Amino acid sequence: MKGRKQHRIPLCDRAVAILSALPRKDAHIFTLKDAAMLDLLREIRPGELTVHGFRSSFRDWASERTRYAPDIAEAALAHAIGNKSERSYHRTDLFEKRRRLMADWAAWCSRPVPTGATVTAIAARASHG
Predict the structure, then answer these.
(1) Residue 14 and residue 7: Cα distance in Å, rounded?
(2) CA-wise closest residue to 59 among 75, 45, 48
């Protein structure tokens, strides 16, 4: 849910495999409070990371590295597309197009680190004291 509206999320094959392997008590895979991701990031690296940084990275990648229409990337982020009049006629959530976009994003995130790149693990500087 975002803004109290349902937001369906297409999962890539790897995400489905990971989630299928998780133990669960009922039909829910996990239940998160509104700020769960932000709370986790604050615990790992206080004051340094934001949820919007992840969202921004995705959006920049979609703009710079793909040919997907901007509306598809915006729909993936659960952003409203167009003005009020346009939205009244735009009733699709572009699910199948977002499925392809998310599969491409998963492939991009899973690729080997380019030679010479600097990668810092998020948890590398975690203080759990």
Answers:
(1) 20
(2) 75
- Are residues 63 and 73 in contact, defined by beta-carbon separation less than 8 angstroms? yes
96: left (phi over 0), alpha (psi -120 to 50) or beta: alpha
Contacts of 63 (CB under 8 A, 6+ apart): 70, 73
Q: Are 59 and 77 in contact (CB under 8 A)?
A: yes
Give the pLDDT means over successive 10-residue stretches in the chain (129 positions): 75 88 80 77 83 89 96 91 84 92 93 86 53
Strand partners, 5: 2
Q: In whole angstroms, what is the distance from residue 59 CA to residue 10 CA? A: 16
Q: Record the pTM.
A: 0.75
The count of C-alpha atoms lying within 13 angstroms of the C-alpha of 125, restricted to the half-sphere facing its C-beta, is 10
Report CA-CA distances (Å) from 31 to 1, 5, 14, 55.
Answer: 12, 17, 20, 20
